[in-house]
Design brief:
The chain has about 230 residues and is α+β, with helices and mostly antiparallel strands. The protein has one domain. Helices cover about 25% and strands about 30% of the residues. It is built from five helices and eight strands; from the N terminus they run ααβββαβαββββα. Strand 7 and strand 8 form a beta hairpin.
């Protein structure tokens, strides 16, 4: 089924993108955990939408967390307090079940991720962090609103040309590699438009071991389960 525009009427009214993305991430994880991932790996969905982590919520003034008989001095006042972007997160992360380390991630870009330059760069920085840890990363952009290009932002942070137009829909996959003592980044880019079928993207787990991310089949199943299609 061709990709539809879930961010404008009429499709956006029939199936809100939040529901689609939750189901899509779960479907991608389910398919990866089926025939593709080896037994020692597991794909897990991580979704945070319109919310923010409670980074300052826990108090250490209670007896269970405060050291007995010790009064902790307060820190000096900050020199500045500035706004900070905390981007949405809709991801499937693949984890090594024994070592509890993440080896790959599939990132579904949300409207908020493209809403402002700060949010877009925040998401790009998270992807760059994954790549610099040696993780394989796939990024999927089906959002038809917002400006800028996250692929170009990722490449800019890594100091390499991006080469995509600043608008449009696309999916890309990244594979960091160390070859003959030199760090390199393999990139697969598949642009598409509303009405096109979605590509299958290669996701690197470790070394030269790749698994397919079947975007079209998982998208169709998410739409079917939410009664957008029969």
């Amino acid at each position: 089924m061709p990709i539809r525009d879930h961010f404008r009427p009429p499709v956006g009214n029939r199936l809100p993108w939040e529901s689609l993305f939750n189901g899509w991430a779960s479907g991608i994880a389910d398919v990866l955990n089926g025939p593709y991932l080896p037994e020692e790996y597991v794909g897990l969905e991580y979704v945070t939408l319109h919310g923010r982590p409670e980074v300052d919520a826990r108090s250490f003034s209670d007896p269970a967390t405060a050291s007995q008989g010790f009064v902790r001095p307060p820190p000096p006042p900050p020199h500045q307090t500035r706004p900070m972007a905390l981007p949405d997160s809709v991801e499937v992360r693949v984890r090594d079940r024994e070592w509890k380390t993440f080896v790959a991630a599939v990132v579904l870009v949300t409207p908020a991720n493209k809403g402002t330059t700060a949010s877009r760069l925040g998401l790009a920085a998270r992807c760059v962090g994954y790549l610099q840890r040696g993780m394989g990363v796939a990024v999927v952009v089906v959002v038809t609103t917002g400006e800028g290009n996250i692929h170009n932002d990722i490449c800019g942070m890594l100091g390499t040309p991006g080469g995509l137009e600043p608008t449009g829909l696309y999916a890309e996959a990244y594979r960091p590699a160390l070859r003959q003592g030199r760090a390199e980044l393999d990139i697969w880019v598949n642009p598409f438009s509303v009405g096109d079928p979605l590509p299958t993207m290669p996701l690197r787990l470790i070394a030269d071991y790749f698994v397919p991310v079947e975007l079209e089949a998982t998208y169709m199943e998410a739409c079917r389960r939410r009664r957008l299609i029969a």
